[in-house]
Amino acid sequence: MQAYEAGNLDSLMALHLPDSTFAGTLQPFWLHGPEVRDLWNRYLGGTQRRLVRFRDVETRLYADNVSVETGYMEMYMDRPPSPELIATFIRYSITRVRRNGDWLIANMNVARLPDGRP
C-alpha cells in the first residue's frame, strides 16, 4: 500500500517474485515477469496521487510457504491535469510464496466490480 501510494516502482516490485504473473482489468492476457513491472510503471507514471484501501481481506496459509489472499480493493487515482481522484472498485486474489523469510507475490489477479462498491 505504501509503495503504491508513494509511486515507488522499485519498492512495489520488491514485493514480487521476478517471474510473477498478473491479470488485471485493462489487459486481456496474463503478464509475466518484466511485463508486470512495465504495467505498474505505466500506472504509476500516469498519476500524481494514488490511494488504495483493502476490505474484507482473508488470507489462507498452505504448507508454511504459500498463502492465498482474497478481498476487495478501493483504488483512487487522479488523471492529470484534473486533481479529482477517480475510484475503481476491485475484487482481487494474491498468491504469495515465502522466500528467505519474505512473502513475495507469485500471482495477482484483479477484476473490476461491474456496478461499484462490494
From TrEMBL:
Domain SnoaL-like, first and last residues per copy: 2-106
Xref: Gene3D superfamilies: 3.10.450.50
Pfam families documented for this protein: SnoaL_3
Protein name: SnoaL-like domain-containing protein
Organism in which the protein naturally occurs: Craurococcus roseus
